[in-house]
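Example record

One chain of 82 residues, shown exactly as stored in the release files.
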Amino acid sequence: MLTAEVQRQLQERNLPVLEDSDATVSSDQDFYLADKALVIFYPLYAITPYYVGIPMFPISVYDLQDIATENGPISLLSANIA
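Predicted structure tokens for this chain:
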């Protein structure tokens, strides 16, 4: 699911991809949590040319609720707190 979302954003944002790159999401993928999003990122030159900068792909925590573990960070971020 995460790899498909990264691929979708690459196409939607029309980002150039290096020929030998692999824009898949691995089990040790770099990421951070910000606001209400999981942000997947890759090092420079990993999947895009340098001029693109660090390629980052925000994914709404609400889109991840089906795969989030109960009481995990994604579930906590997506909770409606009154």
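Notes: DSSP finds two helices and three strands in the chain.
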